Fold these 4 entries.
Entry 1:
Amino acid sequence: MAGFKIVALIASVTAQIGAFTALLLQLYGLILLWKIHEKQKKNTMLIALQNRRSYFLRKLKVLRQRRLRRRNRSCWFKPSRSDQWWIKMINGEAPDEFWMKNFRMTKESFLELETELKPYISPDPSSPNYRALDSAKKLAVTLYYLKDTGSLIMTANAFGIAVCTVSGVVVEVSNVISKVLGPKYLHLPVDENEMRKKVCEFETKFGIVQAFGCIDGTHVPILRPLKDPQD
């Protein structure tokens, strides 16, 4: 009887040792697979870095070749173009009514607006173009373009610059006005009470009912109806 117990005990221990050995082999296999995966991942990253390095080296070589082939710029400002009228305007040689006619504002208002926008639209001081547009001229180009029909060619000819320059300047200055000055000066009502207050203030000041503000300054003549003209 004791012999059977010893045999059973030995068999149980042997089975446990076998199970433990199998577990160790599985763990070793998992570790080996993880090492293989990490090695493959590392090799893939090295190949990607080498490809990227080769790509940048090729791009750098192309840029160097382009720089060697590039001709020196003959001029930054075409001699045939002139902006003498704007120089006279900004230097105070033109009558004050010219400001209202060309920019829809007085010179004082223009300079005040230019002061607010100057930190955002001033040219890069490190630019090699010594005739780069300053903040005042950029603002003048934008206002001149927006004052009536908005012709790029007319604006370019008036300020002695290229049409593409006018397009870029108008977009740049308009974005700055929208992002910087818009939140500063345009305040919409946040609730019904504030809206009613603004409607009353607008009616008292301008005689227009059911409105708390207006956009743009375009005047369109209309014929009011005889019945309830205020509505």
Note: The chain has a mean pLDDT of 80.
Entry 2:
Amino acid sequence: RAVWCLCEKNPDNPLKMTIGDVKTAQGLSDLNKYLADKSYLSGYTPSQADVQVFEQVGKAPAASLPHALRWYKQIASYTPAERKAWPAGVSPLTAGGKPTAPAPAAKDYDDDDVDLFGSGDEEEDAEAARIREERLKAYADKKSKKPALIAKSSIILDVKPWDDETDMKEMEKLVRTIEMDGLLWGASKLVPVGYGINKLQIMCVIEDDKVSVDLLTEKIQEFEDFVQSVDIAAFNKI
């Protein structure tokens, strides 16, 4: 049966306590007594000594061993990565009380792992390039199928007649005969301007890339028997 020595890290306290195998009831009992007034096995902070005994114990001690159970739960609350980073401590696994630390993992090398010509990297780069090109092509195809945003504007035009004898209904009828790709006529109304004269206020929506506002007003002014002038009362982007 393995016999371990738990030694205080504090040189002012030379107390040594020999315990049995912690996988046995007697060994756990000895461990419980040792931890009665201690938080950790070696000093005041956790160390690799705690990790080694923790792994040997394997599972939480019984409730009848409160000190060992408290210590076990405390060590178990840390992640394996955190426990691995703890410093060396006085190990209970050696009778001489020598400091222990986790042995670095040895790396095995194999001749097959060494590629003198770098062919693997070239194949990997070619594969990565192929995947990148496929993704770029898929993105371009998706973007090309997406309908483009059409810029539009809402315009209110003031169409003024020559005098109060102008047939406003006929003037509006003529204005609405103007047809252009990207032009949509909307609501209209007559607005008094004084001396019995009304102006035609008419709304339209245009596609900016297809309809020129200047060209539209020129076409309206071509009805010179009815139209004196055309002004833009409001212009808003949609």
Note: The longest helix spans residues 119-145.
Entry 3:
Amino acid sequence: MKTLLAIETSTRACSVALSYAGKIHVLEEMTPQAHAKMLLPMVDKLLQSKSVRPEEIEGLVFGQGPGAFTGLRIATSVVQGLALGWNKPFSAVSGLEAMAWSYSVSQQKPVAAVLDARMGECYVSIYAQGQQCVPASLVSPERLIEWLEQYEVGLGVGDALASFPMLQQRFSQWQTVQPSAQHLLEMVQALRPSFKTLDAALPVPLYLRNQVAEKAKGR
């Protein structure tokens, strides 16, 4: 297991995780509107708690979204600053997809990660035993229900039920959770995506709503 540091700030939860000495160590706080103030102190606290120096870290992982616009900008700017200051490569991972993947590997039936995207829409990703069925997408609840039936989803995870209670009956089980830096590291360690340096690319957030708006303008 490589020594990796992950950050995830796409929702109300602010989390950092460190893979070190064969384990994943996590620090998480529910800090709505305070991610910018909390994130770097949480990174420092986690590293100090395990006596890990920045030079020991082999790579950085950040949750690129989809999610809250401000949270995604914070994660992107912080990972860029750390990559520059520590001279480390980085990998961008969808926190939504990582959450779906993480739960799906222990389930027989497909798992849907569903987050409230506001404006009457949902962010969704569906995985079946670690295999992607639906990538991170922005959809209406009606379209989501079609996918749940199409893929015969069993477990649902996320925070969407509070805004879309009609979804409750569509799942055999539901767990209210937020994307976590731990999900990012679990997925990265299993799938081993490529890492990039700042010389090759800059960290980029995943803004699904912007993409949809741009497509609509082009029609």
Note: The first strand starts at residue 4 and ends at 8.
Entry 4:
Amino acid sequence: MEITVQDRTIYEQLCKDYLNLKLLAQNACTSPERLERCKQLILEDVHSKRKLSRVSSCEDLLQILEQRNLLSLLKPELIERLELALDSEDITNAIKLYRKTISLHYAPIRRFYLEDLRYRDRRTLLEREVEKIKLAENPNISSFHEKYRKQRETIYSLLQKQIGRDWKAFGRNLNITEAELDEINERNRNDLKGRIYEMLLSVEQTFTDDSLEQFISTLTKALEKIRRSDLKRKIESELGM
């Protein structure tokens, strides 16, 4: 079966949609009671009450499911099950579209997904050691990287909820071109949060792990330009800046 450029585009969009599904689940898990219901729904799959007892957030829960290969880009079923506890129309609608995409394009999606897995597996021990050395040589980078990793979803969620109709102005100040903004809008016609998420992801991917402070600086400057210094302060507070 011939794989086309369009197939690759569909796969890349599905990767973004998968991340968005996880974020929607985290946003909908608004109380300890909901988190507990989610744990009960997947208890038999995880087979470890002790492991689940240590879970304090939906993000931790999803991470465990991925580590145990119970949840992945090709296996979104458990997010669908969690929706029973989260009662989110956004998740319901997103999972329907997600499943439809997989159903229509399963073969090329699976091929690209497996290729990506093999590529990640090919990373050598030397490459990993080089990364460790870089972080060890600059403890400030290491410290900030760790802070950002822990607060990333919180920051994304905050901006998705608060930017609203200013999303295009925000995007322009992130140096996203009009053509790119139009494409993002086209891909997320009925999903404002999806547009904002895709913008943030595309900008973040232009920065390396050791330049994440520059990424945050870019975000906060863009927020100031659209007169949302309140969000700038919240992000800085989350990161202890």
Note: Residues 18 and 118 are 19 Å apart (CA to CA).
